[in-house]
Amino acid sequence: MSIDLKATAAQFQIFGDIGDISNYGSGHINDTYMVQLNLAGRPVRYIMQRINSAIFTNPPQLMDNICRVTDHLRQKLNADGADEPSRRTLTVIPSRDGKSYYHDAAGNWWRMYLFIEGARTFDVIERPEQAYEAARAFARFQNQLADLPAPRLAETIPNFHNIRTRLAALDAAAESDCCGRLKDVADELEFVNSRRGVMSRLLERHERGEIPERITHNDTKINNVMIDDRDGTGVCVIDLDTVMPGLALYDFGDMIRTATASAAEDETDLSKVGSRFDMFEALVRGYRSEARFLLPAEIEELAFSGQVITFTIGVRFLTDYLAGDVYFKTHRPGHNLDRCRTQFAMVKDMEAQAERRNALVKSMEV
Ligand code: ADP
Ligand code: GN1
Ligand code: MG
After folding, report:
1. Given 117, 140, 159, which residue is the final one in a domain?
2. Which end of the chain is more exposed for a tag (fewer CB within 10 A), N or C?
3. In this predicted model, what pLDDT tens digit does every residue of 282-308 receive, in sequence order?
4. Are residues 208 and 231 both part of a single domain?
5. From the alpha carbon of 241, which atom of ligand 2 is closest?
6. Which ligand 2 atom is the nearest neighbour of the CA of 317?
7. Ligand sitting nearest the alpha carbon of 328
8. pLDDT at 203 over 60
9. Which ligand 2 atom lies nearest to the CA of residue 327?
């Protein structure tokens, strides 16, 4: 069934003449559209998304999380007298019947946000200053949410970064080999098997009470922060579907995974793939300048968190490859396996730099 995007957009509280609606962004999960509107002669844009309800199985609960988070951020921005608060946090546009989403007759779940103007996202960053600013923005986001009033946010995807359950899912996919792809991944499975124990360290330290749970973003991929066109600062943290209890280190790890990457996540020429030291340094400086809450145990694991998250995401890509590409959007055959291979190449590069990175973290004054 084809979707009438204009009729869908008209279900939200927007005014004026709805113009072009086009696909937007390079996210792997939701269907994102840019909606252009003519508001009595003034062009205005919105972001409209079809929520991936195979992954986020309770969209009203998900949107309740997002409204609580964005309301809290907006209150803080207003209290601090921040410049342009509507660019600094997402603004949910209600539907005509006053809900934070629209559920259409075919069963699709939709939402709409103000379009953040004068800023953009990067899939691969170009300069260490961008890493520095992105890390500051994500740390500020964690700071601002530290006093979110109870109740606890809903876990939109339980065990999201839990390496034990992610490895169990990989084992199950390998065991069933539903698509006959196991034969392609012997090297990757060997890579995984030799690291099962070491990659559980953060989880174990959390379970022993050494590393605390906090409210975290959980998807701090570099293209989930908007960078200002004029001054290069991190304007707004977006993609709030997985904001929930988690470890700050998982957020920092995903910044390392994506901001230090020297090539695209799906690069097939592995000689181009690596984790850049200068970007790592900028991330640590940016993050530590704002994340004042970090405990010594967390600081100690900052460099290692990159290996853990990059490994975990690699395991997830590999699992999805074996399972027949059912989770991440793919655009070519073998796409998930290509992504898995870049992740594992990055892990190797991070391992080779581990000593130098830990020394840098230790030496850094804040
Ligand atoms: P996904 O969960 O699929 O990654 P995102 O919410 O991250 O979806 O959106 C995909 C892309 O759309 C982002 O990387 C960003 O470039 C763009 N985008 C999302 N929300 C906005 C917004 N409010 N204003 C401008 N661009 C946005
Ligand atoms: C997905 O939604 P997006 O593209 O920002 C995924 C992340 C992965 C990432 C890998 C909800 O992020 O966990 O790290 O792809 N999001 C979800 O690029 O699974
Ligand atoms: Mg995204």
Report:
1. 117
2. N
3. 999 999 999 999 999 999 999 999 999
4. yes
5. 11
6. 10
7. 2
8. yes
9. 19
Residue nearest to atom 8 of ligand 1 (CA): 27
- Ligand in nearest proximity to the CA of 47: 1
For the cut 90, the answer to whether the pLDDT of residue 1 exceeds it is no
Same-domain status, 112 and 141: no
- From ligand 2's centre to the CA of 41, what distance in Å? 37
Clarify whether residues 146 and 100 are in a common domain. Answer: no
Residue 9, helix vs strand vs coil: helix
- Which pair of structure tokens corresponds to residue 144? 């601002």
Do 340 and 293 share a structural domain? Answer: yes
Neighbours of ion ligand 3 (CB under 5 A): 27, 224, 239
Q: What is the mean pLDDT of residues 144-161?
A: 97
CA distance 63 to 111: 9
Assess whether the previous peptide bond of 151 is cis (omega < 30° from 0): yes
Query: What is the domain range of residue 326?
Result: 128-363
Beta strands in 51-116 (DSSP E): 102-103, 109-114
- Closest listed ligand to the CA of 218: 2
Percent helix, strand, coil in the chain, to 5, is 45, 15, 40
Tokens of 296: 């010594």
Please, what is the angle between helix 335-352 and helix 186-193, to 10°? 40
End residue of a domain, out of 68, 85, 117: 117
Ligand 1 center to residue 32 CA distance, Å? 7
Ligand 1 atom nearest residue 30's Cα = 3
> Which residue minimizes the CA distance to atom 13 of ligand 2?
219
Q: Read off the tokens for 322.
A: 């074996």
Pocket residues for ligand 2 (CB within 6 Å)? 27-29, 219, 221, 224, 239, 241-242, 265, 313
* Tally of domains in the chain: 2
Which residue has the least CA distance to atom 22 on ligand 1? 115
What is the pLDDT at residue 107? 97
Is 122 domain-assigned? no
Beta bridge partners of 48: 33, 112
| Residue 158 backbone dihedrals phi, psi, to 5 degrees | -60, 150
Q: Residue whose CA is closest, atom 10 of ligand 2?
A: 313
